[in-house]
Amino acid sequence: MSSIILVSILAKRDLSENVLTNLPKRVNTSATGTLQQTIGIVVVPYFQPDDPQWNIIFKQADLYPGTIKYVIINPCSGPCGTTLSSDWQNIISILKNKGIKTLGYIFDDSESFANIDYYMKASPVSTDGIFFDNEGSIDNLANFKQYAEYVHSLGGMVYINPGYNYPQVINYIKSGAVDVTNIHEMESSKSHYILVNDNLPPSKISVVLGNITDVQEMKTKLTEIASKGIGTVYLYSSSYDSLPPFFF
Fold this sequence. Notes:
Elements: H1 3-12, E1 27-29, E2 34-36, E3 40-43, H2 53-63, E4 68-73, H3 86-97, E5 101-107, H4 113-120, E6 129-133, H5 141-153, E7 157-161, H6 169-174, E8 180-187, E9 205-210, H7 215-227, E10 232-235
């Protein structure tokens, strides 16, 4: 997609249909019953660094500074080779310059110091932390702490995705091992399963909802998520390999 076509698409979009312009300005916190902070976005873009969709993310980040908080970097469903390619380093660098934290993707059965180093030490441009997918879906905290502590020792953040708010998830958060936990990764029709533990700040929790194609549903789900004290969200339509139509 050329930059001219991209600008044309962005210019024609109705801003009322853009997820970034519909983010609730305040998020409910169950601990205090007060409303605070603006909800933010984590983007799950599982496409290659030469995909033109990155230009949409960059453009939206420029138009709405601070709304995109995190972007997951996923070269090959995890690391590829021994170092990040120059193309991936360029993507990471651009995102960092826009104030967005980048998170290297590691599935829980591939957790290792070497894979953490791939994202955070082996290349001149490193990610700001690690996204540990599926971590916390079973109680693995005792073993996981070594990797969380290592990421923190490198100055990075730890983001886990158990996909649901299992009973053990609260222990991951309260232990200090994790900085953000994604407690829901399901289709939008199951958003009523989103359960939030008391006394957790919105900045510590996120949700991902899929199968959202209607603008009104997008707006309704954002309001619902904010009312439940969730600080970060990603809404997608069909899959992670394409941005939802309401993202641009």
